[in-house]
Automatic annotation (TrEMBL):
GO terms for molecular function: AMP kinase activity; ATP binding. Monomer. This is Adenylate kinase. Consists of three domains, a large central CORE domain and two small peripheral domains, NMPbind and LID, which undergo movements during catalysis. The LID domain closes over the site of phosphoryl transfer upon ATP binding. Assembling and dissambling the active center during each catalytic cycle provides an effective means to prevent ATP hydrolysis. The lineage of its organism: Bacteria, Bacillati, Actinomycetota, Actinomycetes, Bifidobacteriales. Catalyzes the reversible transfer of the terminal phosphate group between ATP and AMP. Plays an important role in cellular energy homeostasis and in adenine nucleotide metabolism.
Length: 190
C-alpha cells in the first residue's frame, strides 16, 4: 500500500498516519518529523531547515525532494509506505511523480482529512502546550495555514482528477476516523 495523507495543519495527519502504518505494516514517513529530528540534533540539514520551519515557510523543494527520494530508497519501503506532509506544492508533486515512475511504484490512494478552522486552531493550541513545538505560535500557525491554503490545498484537485482521492472527515474520535479511513481504502484498493 502506497499512500499520501493530506490536510491542513492540526487535522491529525501524523496521528492517523501512525495508525495506518501499524495497520498495513508499512513505514509512516513525515517530512516534518525528519526536519524536526535534524533540527533537534543540530545537523547541517536541520540548521538550514530551521530557518524556514520557524517562519512557517516551506523548506526549499530541492532539499525536501532529496530527503524523500533517499527515504523511499531505504529497505523498509518494499511493501509500501505512507507519506505525511509531502508533497506540499505542485513542484513536489512533479518530483514525486518522477521518483515513483523511476521506482515503478505508483500511488494507491491519497487520504484527505479535513476539519473546520476552529477545530484546527484548538488542536494546535493544545499541541503547543503539550509539545512546545517552536512553530506552534499564533503567528507561525497563521502563516502555515496560509501556505497550506495557497500551495497545498489545490493539490487535492490534482489527485482528485487522477481518481486517487479518499476524503475523510477529520472530526471525531481518533479510532473512529481510523476505521473510516481503512474502510474507504479497503473499498478502493481491494
Ligand atoms: N514537503 C515539505 N516541503 C517543504 N517544507 C516542509 C515539507 N514538510 C515539512 N516542511 C517544513 O516543516 C514544517 C513542519 O511540517 P509538519 O508537516 O510537521 O507540520 P505542519 O505543517 O504544522 O502539519 P501538522 O500539524 O500535521 O504537524 C513545515 O512548516 C515546513 O516548514
Ligand atoms: Mg504532523
Amino acid at each position: 500500500m502506497r499512500l499520501l495523507i493530506m490536510g491542513p495543519q492540526g487535522v491529525g495527519k501524523g496521528t492517523q498516519a501512525a495508525k495506518l502504518a501499524e495497520h498495513y505494516g508499512i513505514p509512516a514517513i513525515s517530512t516534518g518529523d525528519i526536519f524536526r529530528y535534524n533540527i533537534k540534533n543540530k545537523t547541517e540539514l536541520g540548521l538550514e531547515a530551521m530557518s524556514y520551519t520557524d517562519k512557517g515557510e516551506l523548506v526549499p523543494d530541492e532539499l525536501t525532494n532529496k530527503i524523500v527520494k533517499d527515504r523511499l530508497a531505504m529497505d523498509d519501503t518494499k511493501n509500501g509506505w505512507i507519506l505525511d506532509g509531502y508533497p506540499r506544492n505542485a513542484s513536489q508533486v512533479e518530483a514525486l511523480d518522477a521518483m515513483l515512475a523511476d521506482l515503478g511504484t505508483p500511488l494507491d490512494a491519497v487520504v484527505a482529512l479535513d476539519a473546520d478552522r476552529d477545530v484546527l486552531m484548538e488542536r494546535m493550541a493544545k499541541r503547543a502546550a503539550e509539545q512546545g513545538r517552536t512553530d506552534d505560535t499564533p503567528e507561525v500557525i497563521a502563516k502555515r495555514l496560509e501556505t497550506y491554503a495557497q500551495e497545498t490545498a489545490p493539490l487535492l484537485d490534482t489527485y482528485g482528477e487522477r481518481g486517487l482521492l479518499v476524503a475523510i472527515d477529520g472530526v471525531g474520535e481518533i479510532d473512529a476516523i481510523q476505521a473510516d479511513i481503512v474502510a474507504a481504502l479497503d473499498a478502493k484498493v481491494a
